[in-house]
Amino acid sequence: MMQSITPDHTLSAIHNCLPANKDRIDLMQLDESGFEAADQLIDQLQTQQVLLEFKPSGAAIEALQHLYHATKTNERLEGSKILALGFPLVSHFRLEEVAVTPILLWPLQLEPSVNKVDQWKLSSSPSTAPRLNPTALPFLSERLEETDVQALQTDLENGTYTQKQLWSFVDQLLQPTEEDGLFENATHLAPLPEIATLSDFAAQEKVLFSGVLAAFPSQLPTMDPHLLAELFEFAQEETEQHPFGFFTLDPNQASIFETTRQQALTIVKNQ
Asked: I need a surface site. Which of 28, 58, 61, 216 has the fewest CB within 10 A?
């Protein structure tokens, strides 16, 4: 019996969406034509009118079926839609391992084609806004102005963003920096690199002009606005001694620890 995708599983995807699981699909492997369907999807995202029919590649068929049934089951049991495209991505090291973190999450609907047995359809609602992945904020603080990131985050949450604003943000991310060196960012969609190449990219925290179709949480974790401001100031003060070990706390852990000191009761949910 098909089970719904667990919250822990979707939460792990916002930290690392490498297609190691069969419910995560490299956008460039979606269609047997390769780049054509992927290019069409990105073009359609810019018009807020996604309606893409495609014939999946052999590598994507099983993953699509699994992703479709699992997300539909989750929608029926939990009442939430969790399918989205993570795009663009950033390669970095997380817990000493290569990770690929989505920067924006674009909600999509996946359905088998009614008229053609071997085809599938991806669509979106114009009223459904993409979401900024909060786990990518520490990286964004090194590339962009705080006001730009905060303005986009607020406008996305309130539905007041414009397509020009959104894609200007994406264009800024895809511009190579001096730190990129030889790893200049691609100007067109590309498949996810092999792990060995990703390791080189991760050292540079390189933005990838690539996408991954996967299940992501319907409710994203939030970051304290004061903590977000500290990220952009590049001057975080270390939290006082804490009983959880000898390692420095990351921003989310620091925020949680400070909350426990200020409240009589705090419930902490592992992410």
From this structure: 58
Tell me, yes or no, whether 230 lies in a domain.
Answer: no
Residue 224 has phi, psi (to 5 degrees) of: -55, 130
pLDDT higher for 43 or 3? 43
CA nearest to 99, candidates 134, 67, 135, 130: 135
Q: Which long-range contacts (CB under 8 A, 24 or more apart) does 148-157 make?
A: 148/172, 149/232, 150/228, 156/129, 156/130, 156/131, 156/132
> Structural domain tally of the chain?
2
Which range marks the domain in which residue 253 is found? Answer: 237-271
What are the CA-CA distances from residue 100 to residues 1, 48, 119, 165 (Å)?
31, 25, 29, 24
pLDDT in tens, 10-45: 568 898 898 877 778 999 988 887 788 899 999 999
